[in-house]
Amino acid sequence: MSKRLPQRGGAERPVGEPSGAAPATGTPGDGTAAATGPAGPLPHWTNPLRDQGDRRLPPVAGPCGLVVFGVTGDLSRKKLMPAVYDLANRGLLPPGFSLVGFARRDWADEDFSQIVYEAVKEHARTPFREEVWRQLADGMRFVPGDFSDDTAFKQLRHAVEDLDAARGTSGNYAFYLSVPPKFFPAVVRQLKKHGLANAPEGSWRRAVIEKPFGRDLASAHELNAVVHEVFGPDQVFRIDHYLGKETVQNILALRFANTMFEPIWNRSFVDHVQITMAEDIGIGGRAGYYDGIGAARDVIQNHLLQLLALTAMEEPASFDAQSLLAEKLKVLKAVRGPADLGRDTVRGQYAAGWQGGEQVVGYLEEDGIDPGSVTDTYAAVKLEIDNRRWAGVPFYLRTGKRLGRRVTEIAVVLQRAPHSPFDTEATEELGRNAIVIRVQPDEGVTVRFGSKVPGTSMEIRDVTMDFAYGESFTESSPEAYERLILDVLLGDANLFPRHQEVEESWKILDPIEEYWAAHGRPAPYASGGWGPEEADEMLARDGRSWRRP
Ligand code: BG6
Predict the structure, then answer these.
(1) Taking burial as the number of CB atoms within 10 A of a residue's CB, which of 177, 295, 363, 418 is the most buried?
(2) Among residues 336, 369, 337, 365, which one has the least CA distance to residue 353?
(3) Residue 82, domain CATH
(4) Which range among 173-177, 345-349, 454-458 shows the weakest confidence by mean pLDDT?
(5) What's the whole-model pTM score?
């Protein structure tokens, strides 16, 4: 069993309740600064144990605020607001942290904080504590208006200036665009016009952008141009929430902190890699977003290609954003899409069926979906990587809604032993060795290998060795959005895809989408199953089969 680390953060040090050591010095806003508030220096922001050299403790964000556009949306309610509270509860937000909501609602500050309160009560990961909530709520403001409304943006500017004066946010603000991309141009241009995009001397301004980053290479390009009219590359943080998951970050730890995996992590030992992101849910209330986008654009372009990049890339020179980008980019550029798109890609659409004991409707019967829609809710593709490490090793990626179970995993499936001294009957139940990174749920890693079945005969069967987060560590994993919001406030860009990666990913997907658009309809598959038969056939042709997680 692994050594237990001390609890990180600590709920004893909520927002605004500094931890008591001498003020720290450092760069404003990088999590190490002592700040000056309206009434002289505010209490220090850093974690004293960290100052004394314990790097395992997370840094605390420096003085700052967060402005959320699209604050009435689902993402904000279920993920962003609860994550902000959880960060506050873990003592990782600065004392004067302020949260500004912007939306087309006729709300006062109190109405906004009531909505956030309900979201926190329902979705926060950590226990509710009244004193943490009070302190957070004191820094909440709401600005009503739409994106073309100059008066609203003037009001936003005043809100930010007031908060600087009242709570010592020091001009440091992140603007979170939790809105559909068609609104990006209006929002960023308004931020520029009203002087909000430019940081006052000694402070920072950042833009946080949610996916989808376009619907193909050309539109991603346009979107990027619009954002960069206003914000510099280092000011833009693109969210791929999979990179905020502990288990995804663990891919790098597993590969590069150990000696036992890397020697076999190549074409000499690996037969193929399967990356699966299966969901049991349907599209829920997201028809407006999903229809016309589909599974491949929704998650292969971003989450699954990021998983592929982390699994296949070379060791970075260090773990800073530039080095990570360099390696991810290199491997994404080496990805080769299928030469035969009809053979090595499959798309499907869920039909009615049974899910978790309930009868569910098919995609075409969902509210808000065009009954003639050809949108894919399932996608599987076979990719190859043209480099020395991976030549000839297929990477099979699949994702789908309304599948048998919610599971995301990366299975690195090894070749069979070159020679077997055992009878064929003895190894009938021996599959291929595999290393499976269980991204979610049941987070952990499984190693599968053959073992002798107890008894007099030499019979060999697959067994597994498991690492489970829940058993090895006492602390529970933070939600992806907690980590990512904190990193934005700290200005740490490691876990955010850069525009070049986004473009390379579209280059992989565009030919597939174009082929699909020109060739018929997605294959129907029953809800609650494992996708269309065509996907099984795709692997069977290669002498392989999908794992049934
Ligand atoms: C989002 C997709 O990026 O990821 C959704 O837009 C999907 O369609 C979601 O449901 C899944 O996220 P998670 O963290 O639950 O695996």
Answers:
(1) 363
(2) 365
(3) 3.40.50.720
(4) 454-458
(5) 0.89
